[in-house]
Amino acid sequence: MGQKSPACATAALCPECHHQIDNGRDLPQDERRRLMDRAIVKTHIALAERGLLRLAA
Question: Which of 24, 53, 57 lies closest to 41 in space, CA to CA?
């Protein structure tokens, strides 16, 4: 059973990307981690641009 990530460590992903990052065996683990890190940052940027995520001062 997997461990639930905190809300700040989640990313908006399509089902195909989610499967590739989470379960994909065609990418090494370090590459999957890099893709997930990038997706988290891009999700935070998109939320902040829409005013849905406020950054602490």
Answer: 53
Flag whether pLDDT at 46 surpasses 70.
yes
Q: String of b and e for 33-51 (b: at least 16 CB within 10 Å)? A: eebbeebbeebbeeeeeee
What's the full length of the chain, in residues?
A: 57
Instruction: For 4-41, write each residue's pLDDT tens digit.
Output: 888 888 899 999 999 999 887 889 999 999 999 999 99
The count of other CB atoms within 10 Å of the CB of residue 30 is 8
Type of residue found at 14: C
Give the pair of three-digit tokens for residue 44. Answer: 């935070």
From first CA to last CA, the distance across the chain in angstroms is 37
